[in-house]
Amino acid sequence: MEKRLLRRIRVLLGLFAAGLVLCGIVIFPLKWQIDTVAALFGPGTLTDRLFPPMAQWIAQLQTGIAAIADNHPYLFYCTDWVGFAMIAIALAFIGPIKDPVRNIWVIRYGILVCLLTFPMVVISGIVRGFPLFWLPIDCAFGAAGLLLLCPAIHYTKRLETVRRAGG
Question: What is the mean pLDDT of the segment spanning 89-103?
Fold first, then answer.
């Protein structure tokens, strides 16, 4: 029972940490990324025919990011730090992957951050002029994290109970 719980916890936390690393890495080539997204979902695509506001928003993002790349590339230093922070946060999950019971606080912290994603997205998105249809897309990052971390903490509590009972 203990080994099965530990394996489940490690898989969930490993997926969460891998997701953070992946999100952190893809932030670095931001211009390439938006150009790719625009080619797939921007003006002139199926998205444009089915949901024109989305295609227009992607085009607006592409225009803004291109302007920054051409005129103020040093501003990408901010997104570089965001990418680094995501990778650094992923590293914090090595402790709970190794010993989830001892490091349950890291899992709780991850859940708290995922929950705080929702008000941050709504407040910052509205203040920064993001269209309302985009906010659930950004909220999906917090939701995905919760889908991994909530079962992980549940299994961690069960693991603690099993260990206290002696096996």
Answer: 98
Round to whole Å and give the CA distance between 61 and 26: 16
110-149: burial string, b at 16+ Cβ within 10 Å, e else: bbeebeebbeebbeebeeeebeeebbeebbeebebbbebb
Task: Quickly list H helices, the chain.
Answer: 2-27, 30-41, 46-50, 52-71, 76-92, 94-98, 104-127, 135-165
Average pLDDT over residues 79-85: 97
**Confidence band of 131 (pLDDT split at 50, 70, 90):** very high
What pLDDT, on a 0 to 100 scale, did the predictor assign at position 167? 59
Domain ranges for the chain: 2-165
Cβ atoms within 10 Å, residue 49:
9
CB 87 within 8 A of CB 76: no
